[in-house]
Amino acid sequence: MAAPEIRIVGGGLAGCEAALQLARRGRSSTLYEMRPTVPTPAHRSGCLAELVCSNSLKSADPATASGLLKEELDRLGCELLPIARACAVPAGAALAVDRERFAAAVEARIAAEPLITVRREEVGRLEAAPGRWWILASGPLTSPALQDQIGALTGQGGLHFFDAIAPTVTRDSLDLGRLYRASRYAKGEADYLNAALDEGEYRAFREALVAAERIPVKDFDRADLFEGCQPIEEIAESGPQSLCFGPLRPVGLNLPDGRRAHAVVQLRQENAAGTLWGLVGFQTRLRWGDQERVFRMIPGLERAEFVRLGQMHRNFYVDSPRVLRPDFALRAEPAVRLAGQITGVEGYVESIAGGLVTAWHLDAALAGRRLPPWPYTTIIGALHHGFLFDDTAPRLAPMNANFGLLPELDQPVKGKRERKLAQRERALADLEFFLRLVAEDAGAVSAAAETEYPGEE
Ligand SMILES: Cc1cc2nc3c(=O)[nH]c(=O)nc-3n(C[C@H](O)[C@H](O)[C@H](O)COP(=O)(O)OP(=O)(O)OC[C@H]3O[C@@H](n4cnc5c(N)ncnc54)[C@H](O)[C@@H]3O)c2cc1C
């Protein structure tokens, strides 16, 4: 029998992870990436696995959902996370990377893999052929032609939400005498640069933020904003002190003399050299001139040089509960599978996880078997198999990793952190069981025989 022809569309986080997972299983694939020939509204380079906004892959703390997802991915043999760690920059309890180094390292890893062929071209049509399989990992900024193709195949136009990018400044342009180093609650090695605002400075900053001009965005509706990516001006507008409970929260970031500031702006290192710093939580859609003017009101940023300014984007995704089978195949065309943010998950690590999951399902299908059910007690199972296929809501709203996705513990545990650690322990034990079932092929086959995917003949 001829080897299957696997075409992966999108050399982002999900697409690269999927290609590497398939290669690890001896399966060859062609990875199509349209950049640099065809740009997206947010990517800035032609590199594979470019992180479009923050350089943070979020917390690695074991008692966070993001930390648990990372541990699960490590146990599943994720390819991109170890690369991220090798490109890490100091960021307290978070895993943040030097964006360019990370992209270059992923490119190098893919280039060194003989089973992966990279083609720099846009895929606008999904031509069917015997033995051909597609993984669409084209992300939130899927090109319009491909969006139309997906719409035609699913009979639905697709869904969207909005989120925004935060600005980046150069270290040389900062007044380091006014900024102080600290990590919240002294976690890590005082990795962040912090700008303290007293009450008067805060009030003036907030007023300027709310009054500044915003860029009108086509089809923008506030209801379509992703919760975790509220533009800073929208947060400021929601109440006089709302920023102090959000991105400018001073708690755990006392000044070097021990006093607590009224508000604190944090800057996170963006590259290994420490020459670029991002304003944490400053996603915005203010006009560019207004961004520079207002953000220079932050003490220490008076002469800040902005190498990147904030922008807002429309993110495309599909209504997974209604258009996908639980193995991420389109109900209408099972040779086409989806992975990453396009399925309705949100976040870098979640998208990496999506690439891994879809590749595992496809590999199993090509071997004539089905994976055992992913445990809902794990973040990966709860997000990619519970949440994404829950059809009780009329419309899927994108989600990132969080403990709210996990079922309650059988025995109550006192203390928030202790409870999360107990959920983590349960998740990892169940994941080990799942991995044992996967390893025992026979177990996987019998589990497969018990389930029928909706929409399947
Ligand atoms: C503006 C913005 C800011 C974001 N900020 C953050 C953040 O700070 N933190 C966070 O955790 N997540 C963030 N996200 C969310 C998201 O998780 C990331 O976008 C993540 O990169 C998605 O991974 P992916 O692999 O699904 O898609 P991507 O990483 O976007 O990869 C998709 C790739 O497909 C390519 N492509 C698209 N269409 C075609 C086509 N027709 N043919 C060939 N190639 C194609 C694109 O060029 C791209 O390289 C942000 C998203 C956006 C849009």
Using brief descriptors, characterize the structure shown:
binds flavin-adenine dinucleotide; 2 domains; 17 strands; about 450 residues; FAD/NAD(P)-binding domain; alpha+beta; 6-stranded mixed sheet; about 15% strand; globular
What is this structure's SSE topology?
Elements lengths: L4 E5 L3 H12 L4 E4 L23 E4 L5 H11 L4 H7 L1 E2 L4 E4 L1 H13 L4 E4 L12 E5 L7 H11 L4 E6 L3 E3 L9 E3 L9 E6 L1 H13 L20 H6 L25 E7 L6 E4 L8 H8 L10 E3 L3 E6 L2 H4 L5 E2 L2 E6 L9 H19 L12 H8 L29 H24 L1 H10 L7
Parallel strand pairs: 1-2, 1-7, 2-6, 7-17
Antiparallel strand pairs: 3-5, 4-5, 8-15, 9-13, 9-14, 10-11, 11-12, 12-13, 16-17
Helix pairs in contact: 1-10, 2-12
The chain binds flavin-adenine dinucleotide (FAD).
The site of flavin-adenine dinucleotide has 38 residues, from helix 1, strand 15 and helix 10.
Short description:
This protein has helices spanning 13-24, 65-75, 80-86, 99-111, 144-154, 199-211, 232-237, 288-295, 320-323, 348-366, 379-386, 416-439, 441-450, and strands at residues 5-9, 29-32, 56-59, 88-89, 94-97, 116-119, 132-136, 159-164, 168-170, 180-182, 192-197, 263-269, 276-279, 306-308, 312-317, 329-330, 333-338.
Describe the structure.
This protein is an alpha+beta fold. The protein is built from 13 helices and 17 strands. The protein has helices at 13-24, 65-75, 80-86, 99-111, 144-154, 199-211, 232-237, 288-295, 320-323, 348-366, 379-386, 416-439, 441-450, and strands at 5-9, 29-32, 56-59, 88-89, 94-97, 116-119, 132-136, 159-164, 168-170, 180-182, 192-197, 263-269, 276-279, 306-308, 312-317, 329-330, 333-338. The strands form 4 sheets. The chain has a 6-stranded mixed β-sheet, with helices on one face. Strands 10-11-12-13-9-14 form a 6-stranded antiparallel β-sheet. Strand 1, helix 1 and strand 2 (29-32) form a beta-alpha-beta unit. The model is unreliable at 446-457 (pLDDT under 50). Flavin-adenine dinucleotide (FAD) binds at residues 9-15, 32-35, 40, 42-43, 52-54, 122-123, 137-143, 146, 163, 165, 313, 315, 340-342, 346-348, 351.
